Amino acid sequence: MSAWTKERLQQLASTDDLHIAPFRDDGVTLGTPTWIWSVVVDGELYVRAYNGTASRWYLAASKQKAGQITAAGKTTDVTFEEVAGEVNDRIDAAYRTKYASSPYLKPMIDDRARAATVRISPQA
Predict the structure, then answer these.
(1) What percent of the chain has a predicted confidence (pLDDT) above 70?
(2) Of 32, 36, 45, which is closest to residue 17 (Cα–Cα)?
(3) Which tens digits make up the pLDDT trace of 24-61?
(4) In terms of CATH, what superfamily is 6-122?
(5) 3-class SS at 33?
């Protein structure tokens, strides 16, 4: 696993245009980019699936573990890792801060979305 640069993390933290494209079953073809919310917590990039673990992009990311994201004008090859545990409380807090005015905030911090939390890291 590689780490984001400080500059790139700042860009990712401030943008609201992240599109995720996990690989399809063939492990080569990228899926259709899906716009999702993202937050940065403790120097890591996290996303959640609004529709929980049944979400198409989440299922692909969980299975393939790799793909691409496009955000803040740059496309990056990435890896995906499912996360659980206490970090979800800090992720909730980051969502509350970044998306405080959105009517969609509550579903993004409920149990369904928390169960579909993914850490995104740049490929080495």
Answers:
(1) 99
(2) 36
(3) 999 999 999 999 999 999 999 999 999 999 999 999 99
(4) Electron Transport, Fmn-binding Protein; Chain A (2.30.110.10)
(5) coil
Domain extent listing, the chain: 6-122
pLDDT at 124: 81
Q: Do 122 and 2 touch, CB atoms closer than 8 A?
A: yes
Q: What is the DSSP string of 51-78?
A: TGGG-HHHHHHHHH-EEEEEETTEEEEE
For 64, the token pair is 């393939």
Please report the pLDDT score of residue 1 as a whole number: 57
- Apex CA 106: angle with CA 100 and CA 107, to 5°? 130
Contact between 3 and 120 under an 8 Å Cβ cutoff? The reply is no
* pLDDT confidence of residue 8: 96
